[in-house]
Amino acid sequence: MSSTKRAYQSDDRNLALELVRVTEAAALAAANWTGRGLKNEADGAAVEAMRLAFDAVAISGTVVIGEGEMDEAPMLYIGEQVGAGGPAMDIAVDPLEGTNLTAKNAPNALTVVALAERGNFLHAPDIYMDKIAVGPGLPNGVVDLDNTIGTNLRELARAQKRDISELTLCTLDRPRHEELIARTREAGARVMLISDGDVAAVVATAMPGSGVDIFAGSGGAPEGVLAAAAMRCVNGQMQGRLLFEDEDQVARAREMDPSGDPRRKLGLYDMAKGDVLFSATGVTDGALLRGVRFAHGRAITHTIVMRSKSGTIRFIEGQHDFKIKTWTAR
């Protein structure tokens, strides 16, 4: 292996660890508000800590999935430049996925960041996206957004050599999913309803023992891009389609991503292509990660970090001493 290639791989690994520090910072800040019923305060703390942590990351980053437009968010807004200088990167962030979950101390609140080389993430407006996802090791196209859920469940059961009754579909507990839920149960599968947190739910389809076999339904488009980044790293499958309420939203999507029809069905590589890094740290306990634990001036965090280039998945436990650490709010 050439020295140049070794240096590039070493830099990439170092960058992955830097991302862990970024999501840890946001999780530690948000966890101060766990169970206090103050979702906006939790979100604000996570945003501020994540933005500060990015100042030490050796990239020239542009936020393409973030907290909204410049006039809607004070930091980590779409188009904001972050990082200490280095390779040009797209950044997708959700400083606190599950603000309500954090406020209620409910499961599956996460802090999430994904990186890709410039131009490799879908620039998606903050609207809904229809999504479907399954884990790795399955035939390509085993499920399809254009098929009925009954057909998708039958094809998934056939591919996994299981009965449909053994499958569990996860979806957000929303009135708009009533038909999806009814058709899933009618087909014979189980349904797992979640109140928030569809990034974690999509990733769970790729994690053995999570109890989730397929995710389907509509949720935020920004969360869809983050989930796609994670699925790239685990070789899972995912499709999406933006859902528009009016022509103004269509025009906005076309402006942000002029490369194709805004209404087209999006494959995994339409949402996240090239080399992708993904990190998420638990704020509250969930199927994917443990939440932050505070005790005696210290905290323990639990993070997943993944690289699409190598397919490596690492779970990292961090122990933080607040007598030394200075970049958190605690």
Automatic annotation (TrEMBL):
One of its GO terms (cellular component) is cytosol. Keywords: Carbohydrate metabolism, Hydrolase, Manganese, Metal-binding. GO terms for molecular function: fructose 1,6-bisphosphate 1-phosphatase activity; manganese ion binding. GO terms for biological process: fructose 1,6-bisphosphate metabolic process; gluconeogenesis; glycerol metabolic process. Substrate binds at residues 97-99, 128, 174-176, 196-198, 220. Mn(2+) 1 binds at residues 43, 67. Mn(2+) 2 binds at residues 94, 97, 223. It comes from the Bacteria. Its cofactor is Mn(2+). Coiled coil: none annotated. InterPro entries: FBPase_class-2/SBPase. It catalyses: beta-D-fructose 1,6-bisphosphate + H2O = beta-D-fructose 6-phosphate + phosphate. SUPFAM superfamilies: Carbohydrate phosphatase. It holds the Pfam family FBPase_glpX. Belongs to the FBPase class 2 family. This is Fructose-1,6-bisphosphatase. The gene is glpX.
